[in-house]
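Lab notebook page, bench 4
Experiment: in silico fold of construct C2
Operator: M.H.
Input chain length: 252 residues
Purpose: comparison with the prior construct
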Amino acid sequence: GMCPIGLAPLPEEVIDAYLARLTVPRPKQPDLDALQMLMAAHLDRIAYDNVDIHAGRPPADLDCTLAAKCLASYGRGGYCFTVVGAFAALLTSLGFVVSLHVAGVGPDPPQPEKWGNHIVLLVHLDGEAYIADCGLGEGPRTPFKLTKAAWEEDGFTFALEPREGGAWWWKNDPVHGFAGFAVNLATSVASVEEFRGYHEWYWTDPDASYVKAGVVIHRPTASGLLSLHSCTLRRTHPSLPRRYEILRVAAD
Protein backbone atom coordinates (compact mmCIF):
# COMPACT_ATOMS: atom_id res chain seq x y z
CA GLY A 1 0.00 0.00 0.00
CA MET A 2 0.92 3.65 0.34
CA CYS A 3 3.56 3.38 3.06
CA PRO A 4 5.52 6.53 3.97
CA ILE A 5 9.19 6.42 3.11
CA GLY A 6 11.49 6.35 6.10
CA LEU A 7 14.09 9.09 5.69
CA ALA A 8 16.24 10.65 8.39
CA PRO A 9 15.80 14.44 8.61
CA LEU A 10 18.29 16.48 6.62
CA PRO A 11 20.88 18.45 8.62
CA GLU A 12 19.61 21.92 9.43
CA GLU A 13 22.27 23.56 7.29
CA VAL A 14 21.15 21.53 4.26
CA ILE A 15 17.51 22.47 4.83
CA ASP A 16 18.50 26.13 5.08
CA ALA A 17 20.62 25.94 1.91
CA TYR A 18 17.86 24.10 0.03
CA LEU A 19 15.23 26.69 0.98
CA ALA A 20 17.68 29.49 0.14
CA ARG A 21 18.10 28.05 -3.34
CA LEU A 22 14.31 27.90 -3.69
CA THR A 23 14.17 31.50 -2.35
CA VAL A 24 11.28 30.64 -0.02
CA PRO A 25 10.90 30.94 3.78
CA ARG A 26 10.73 27.88 5.97
CA PRO A 27 7.06 26.82 6.20
CA LYS A 28 5.47 27.22 9.61
CA GLN A 29 3.58 23.96 9.19
CA PRO A 30 3.31 21.12 6.63
CA ASP A 31 0.06 22.05 4.90
CA LEU A 32 -1.22 22.36 1.33
CA ASP A 33 -0.26 26.02 1.02
CA ALA A 34 3.31 25.17 2.00
CA LEU A 35 3.43 22.24 -0.43
CA GLN A 36 2.18 24.40 -3.28
CA MET A 37 4.77 27.07 -2.48
CA LEU A 38 7.62 24.56 -2.29
CA MET A 39 6.74 22.72 -5.50
CA ALA A 40 6.26 25.90 -7.53
CA ALA A 41 9.59 27.23 -6.29
CA HIS A 42 11.31 23.90 -6.98
CA LEU A 43 10.19 23.86 -10.60
CA ASP A 44 11.08 27.52 -11.02
CA ARG A 45 14.55 27.36 -9.48
CA ILE A 46 15.79 23.82 -10.17
CA ALA A 47 15.83 22.69 -13.78
CA TYR A 48 14.86 19.33 -15.16
CA ASP A 49 17.96 18.45 -17.18
CA ASN A 50 20.41 15.83 -18.41
CA VAL A 51 23.44 18.14 -18.36
CA ASP A 52 25.58 15.92 -16.12
CA ILE A 53 25.15 13.00 -18.51
CA HIS A 54 26.55 15.01 -21.43
CA ALA A 55 29.26 16.51 -19.23
CA GLY A 56 30.61 12.98 -18.80
CA ARG A 57 30.00 12.83 -15.07
CA PRO A 58 29.32 9.45 -13.40
CA PRO A 59 25.71 8.52 -12.57
CA ALA A 60 24.33 10.70 -9.79
CA ASP A 61 23.95 9.15 -6.36
CA LEU A 62 20.40 8.04 -5.59
CA ASP A 63 20.72 8.51 -1.84
CA CYS A 64 18.05 11.11 -1.01
CA THR A 65 20.22 12.98 1.50
CA LEU A 66 23.16 13.24 -0.90
CA ALA A 67 20.83 14.28 -3.71
CA ALA A 68 19.39 17.04 -1.50
CA LYS A 69 22.87 18.26 -0.60
CA CYS A 70 23.80 18.35 -4.29
CA LEU A 71 20.76 20.42 -5.26
CA ALA A 72 21.06 22.69 -2.24
CA SER A 73 24.76 23.51 -2.44
CA TYR A 74 26.05 22.95 -5.97
CA GLY A 75 23.44 24.56 -8.21
CA ARG A 76 22.62 21.33 -9.96
CA GLY A 77 19.44 20.15 -11.63
CA GLY A 78 18.53 16.64 -12.69
CA TYR A 79 15.74 14.32 -13.74
CA CYS A 80 13.11 12.30 -11.93
CA PHE A 81 15.20 9.89 -9.85
CA THR A 82 17.53 12.59 -8.50
CA VAL A 83 15.25 15.60 -8.01
CA VAL A 84 12.30 13.59 -6.65
CA GLY A 85 14.54 11.92 -4.08
CA ALA A 86 15.94 15.27 -3.00
CA PHE A 87 12.48 16.82 -2.78
CA ALA A 88 11.24 13.86 -0.73
CA ALA A 89 14.10 14.42 1.73
CA LEU A 90 13.26 18.11 2.02
CA LEU A 91 9.54 17.51 2.51
CA THR A 92 9.98 14.84 5.17
CA SER A 93 12.45 17.10 6.99
CA LEU A 94 9.77 19.80 7.05
CA GLY A 95 7.19 17.44 8.55
CA PHE A 96 5.34 16.19 5.48
CA VAL A 97 4.37 12.53 5.11
CA VAL A 98 5.64 11.23 1.78
CA SER A 99 5.48 7.95 -0.12
CA LEU A 100 7.28 7.05 -3.37
CA HIS A 101 5.83 4.90 -6.14
CA VAL A 102 6.82 3.10 -9.33
CA ALA A 103 5.51 4.73 -12.50
CA GLY A 104 5.79 4.30 -16.25
CA VAL A 105 5.94 7.20 -18.69
CA GLY A 106 4.58 6.40 -22.15
CA PRO A 107 1.32 5.36 -23.78
CA ASP A 108 -1.82 4.28 -21.94
CA PRO A 109 -1.33 1.60 -20.76
CA PRO A 110 2.47 1.62 -20.65
CA GLN A 111 4.34 -1.36 -22.05
CA PRO A 112 5.61 -3.70 -19.31
CA GLU A 113 9.21 -2.63 -19.91
CA LYS A 114 8.28 1.02 -19.26
CA TRP A 115 7.34 0.39 -15.64
CA GLY A 116 10.08 1.82 -13.46
CA ASN A 117 11.20 4.54 -15.88
CA HIS A 118 9.70 7.18 -13.58
CA ILE A 119 9.18 7.75 -9.85
CA VAL A 120 6.15 9.55 -8.40
CA LEU A 121 6.05 11.37 -5.07
CA LEU A 122 2.81 11.32 -3.10
CA VAL A 123 2.18 13.67 -0.17
CA HIS A 124 -0.39 12.68 2.47
CA LEU A 125 -2.25 15.62 4.02
CA ASP A 126 -5.34 15.58 6.24
CA GLY A 127 -6.66 12.30 4.87
CA GLU A 128 -6.01 13.27 1.24
CA ALA A 129 -3.14 12.41 -1.10
CA TYR A 130 -1.48 14.75 -3.58
CA ILE A 131 0.91 14.00 -6.43
CA ALA A 132 3.78 16.50 -6.32
CA ASP A 133 5.88 15.63 -9.36
CA CYS A 134 8.89 17.91 -9.62
CA GLY A 135 10.76 15.39 -11.76
CA LEU A 136 8.56 15.27 -14.84
CA GLY A 137 9.92 18.15 -16.92
CA GLU A 138 6.71 18.61 -18.91
CA GLY A 139 3.76 18.77 -16.54
CA PRO A 140 1.88 20.76 -13.88
CA ARG A 141 3.59 23.35 -11.72
CA THR A 142 1.37 22.59 -8.73
CA PRO A 143 0.47 19.43 -6.78
CA PHE A 144 -2.81 17.76 -7.68
CA LYS A 145 -5.17 15.68 -5.57
CA LEU A 146 -5.42 11.94 -6.07
CA THR A 147 -8.97 11.91 -7.41
CA LYS A 148 -10.53 11.49 -10.84
CA ALA A 149 -10.41 14.92 -12.46
CA ALA A 150 -9.61 16.99 -15.53
CA TRP A 151 -8.26 20.48 -15.12
CA GLU A 152 -6.51 23.38 -16.81
CA GLU A 153 -3.34 25.05 -15.56
CA ASP A 154 -1.62 27.94 -17.32
CA GLY A 155 -3.50 27.04 -20.52
CA PHE A 156 -2.46 23.36 -20.46
CA THR A 157 -5.03 20.60 -19.89
CA PHE A 158 -4.39 17.56 -17.71
CA ALA A 159 -6.44 14.65 -16.36
CA LEU A 160 -6.15 11.92 -13.73
CA GLU A 161 -8.08 8.66 -13.94
CA PRO A 162 -8.14 5.49 -11.83
CA ARG A 163 -7.21 2.15 -13.37
CA GLU A 164 -7.50 -1.44 -12.17
CA GLY A 165 -5.24 -2.91 -9.52
CA GLY A 166 -4.42 0.30 -7.67
CA ALA A 167 -2.98 2.08 -10.70
CA TRP A 168 -3.76 5.63 -11.86
CA TRP A 169 -3.26 7.25 -15.25
CA TRP A 170 -2.16 10.89 -15.51
CA LYS A 171 -2.87 12.33 -18.96
CA ASN A 172 -0.54 15.01 -20.27
CA ASP A 173 -1.44 17.94 -22.50
CA PRO A 174 -1.12 16.92 -26.20
CA VAL A 175 1.45 19.65 -26.89
CA HIS A 176 4.01 17.89 -24.73
CA GLY A 177 6.35 15.12 -25.77
CA PHE A 178 4.69 12.13 -24.07
CA ALA A 179 1.13 10.96 -23.45
CA GLY A 180 1.33 10.69 -19.67
CA PHE A 181 2.29 8.24 -16.97
CA ALA A 182 0.76 5.33 -15.08
CA VAL A 183 1.59 5.01 -11.39
CA ASN A 184 1.13 1.99 -9.16
CA LEU A 185 -0.28 3.00 -5.78
CA ALA A 186 -0.95 -0.58 -4.64
CA THR A 187 2.62 -0.65 -3.35
CA SER A 188 5.35 1.80 -2.29
CA VAL A 189 9.10 1.75 -2.71
CA ALA A 190 11.42 1.68 0.28
CA SER A 191 14.21 3.59 -1.45
CA VAL A 192 15.04 5.37 -4.70
CA GLU A 193 17.76 2.72 -5.02
CA GLU A 194 15.04 0.44 -6.39
CA PHE A 195 15.27 2.48 -9.62
CA ARG A 196 19.04 2.05 -10.05
CA GLY A 197 18.73 -0.21 -13.10
CA TYR A 198 16.75 2.33 -15.09
CA HIS A 199 18.84 5.19 -13.71
CA GLU A 200 22.12 3.69 -14.93
CA TRP A 201 20.56 2.77 -18.28
CA TYR A 202 19.32 6.34 -18.76
CA TRP A 203 22.78 7.64 -17.91
CA THR A 204 25.04 5.30 -19.87
CA ASP A 205 23.26 3.36 -22.61
CA PRO A 206 23.71 4.73 -26.16
CA ASP A 207 20.08 3.87 -26.90
CA ALA A 208 18.72 5.80 -23.91
CA SER A 209 16.79 8.94 -24.78
CA TYR A 210 18.81 11.06 -22.34
CA VAL A 211 22.00 10.08 -24.18
CA LYS A 212 20.69 10.25 -27.75
CA ALA A 213 18.71 13.48 -27.46
CA GLY A 214 21.57 15.81 -26.63
CA VAL A 215 21.31 18.35 -23.83
CA VAL A 216 17.74 19.01 -22.68
CA ILE A 217 16.70 21.53 -20.02
CA HIS A 218 13.05 22.19 -19.09
CA ARG A 219 11.58 24.97 -16.98
CA PRO A 220 7.78 25.26 -16.75
CA THR A 221 6.44 28.80 -16.37
CA ALA A 222 3.03 30.49 -16.26
CA SER A 223 3.46 31.48 -19.93
CA GLY A 224 4.55 28.06 -21.17
CA LEU A 225 7.31 25.49 -21.03
CA LEU A 226 10.78 26.91 -21.68
CA SER A 227 13.07 24.25 -23.13
CA LEU A 228 16.66 24.22 -24.28
CA HIS A 229 17.23 21.46 -26.83
CA SER A 230 20.96 21.40 -27.52
CA CYS A 231 21.46 24.92 -28.97
CA THR A 232 17.82 25.92 -29.44
CA LEU A 233 15.68 27.66 -26.83
CA ARG A 234 11.94 27.39 -27.40
CA ARG A 235 8.62 27.99 -25.65
CA THR A 236 5.78 25.47 -25.82
CA HIS A 237 2.16 26.45 -25.17
CA PRO A 238 -1.23 25.35 -26.59
CA SER A 239 -2.06 28.92 -27.63
CA LEU A 240 0.84 29.17 -30.08
CA PRO A 241 0.06 28.57 -33.79
CA ARG A 242 2.57 25.71 -34.07
CA ARG A 243 2.27 24.90 -30.34
CA TYR A 244 5.84 26.12 -29.89
CA GLU A 245 8.04 29.02 -30.94
CA ILE A 246 11.80 29.35 -31.31
CA LEU A 247 13.09 32.03 -28.95
CA ARG A 248 16.83 31.83 -29.58
CA VAL A 249 19.45 29.66 -31.26
CA ALA A 250 23.16 29.48 -30.54
CA ALA A 251 24.01 31.72 -33.53
CA ASP A 252 22.04 34.53 -31.85
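Observations: The two ends are 52 Å apart (CA to CA). The CA atoms of residues 66 and 147 lie 33 Å apart.
Next step: discuss at group meeting.
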